[in-house]
Amino acid sequence: MEHHDCCCGRRQDRRGLLRLLCGATLALALLPARALAKKVAVKLDALPALKKVGGFVVAKVKGRKILLVRDGEDSVRGYTPKCSHQAYRLTYDAKTRQLVCPNHGSRFDLAGKPLKGPAKKPLSEVYRTHLDRPKGRVIIKLD
Question: How much is the pTM?
Answer without folding.
Answer: 0.72
